[in-house]
């Protein structure tokens, strides 16, 4: 009788421990699945564009258009987009209207440095630099992505 009680007690302890480990594993699996689902939702859609400036207003056609090549990554959620211009990465706020994208790059003092305007329908591209009174016009095409 005493032997049976000891066996019963050890079996109960084992059963309780196994249920606790099952709960722990179940909670761990649910938590990791929840984290993975949230990480996938935070990634937004982006468009990668390669834009080449070919003409500058008031100055004429550019001699070497490759000097004015910009790579734009436009965030379709209307957040921060990046512009890689001459190897320098710049960030700007994105405004999307129909198929027209506007990226405004500002400096530390919050003054506008460059305004990048891209027309998605026609593939045209313009960069306005209000500080230097310069406007560059060119074409865009989808690239690297």
Order of H and E elements: HEEEEEEEEE
Q: In angstroms, what is the radius of gyration? A: 29 Å
Task: Work out the number of β strands.
Answer: 9
In which order are the strands of the major sheet placed?
1-3-4-5-6-7-8-9
Largest sheet: 8 strands, antiparallel, barrel
Could you explain the architecture of this structure?
It is built from one helix and nine strands, in the order αβββββββββ. 14% of the residues are buried. The model has no long low-confidence stretch (mean pLDDT 79). A hairpin with a 2-residue loop joins strand 5 (88-97) and strand 6. With 145 residues, the protein is of the alpha+beta class. The chain is rod-shaped. The chain is 28% helix and 46% strand. The chain has an eight-stranded antiparallel barrel.
Question: How do the strands and helices of this protein lay out in sequence?
Answer:
Blueprint: H1 2-42, E1 46-56, E2 60-61, E3 69-75, E4 80-85, E5 88-97, E6 100-106, E7 112-119, E8 124-129, E9 134-142
Antiparallel strand pairs: 1-2, 1-3, 1-9, 3-4, 4-5, 5-6, 6-7, 7-8, 8-9
């Amino acid at each position: 009788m005493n032997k049976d009680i000891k066996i019963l007690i050890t079996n109960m302890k084992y059963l309780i421990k196994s249920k606790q480990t099952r709960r722990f594993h179940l909670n761990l699996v649910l938590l990791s699945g929840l984290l993975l689902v949230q990480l996938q939702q935070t990634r937004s859609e982006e468009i990668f564009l390669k834009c080449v400036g070919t003409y500058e207003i008031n100055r004429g056609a550019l001699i070497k258009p490759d000097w004015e090549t910009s790579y734009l990554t436009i965030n379709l959620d209307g957040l921060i987009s990046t512009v890689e211009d001459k190897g320098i990465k710049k960030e700007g706020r994105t405004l999307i209207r129909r198929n027209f994208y506007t990226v405004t790059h500002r400096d530390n003092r919050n003054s506008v440095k460059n305004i990048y305007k891209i027309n998605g329908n026609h593939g045209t591209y313009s960069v306005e630099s209000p500080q230097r009174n310069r406007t560059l016009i060119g074409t865009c095409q989808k690239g690297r992505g």
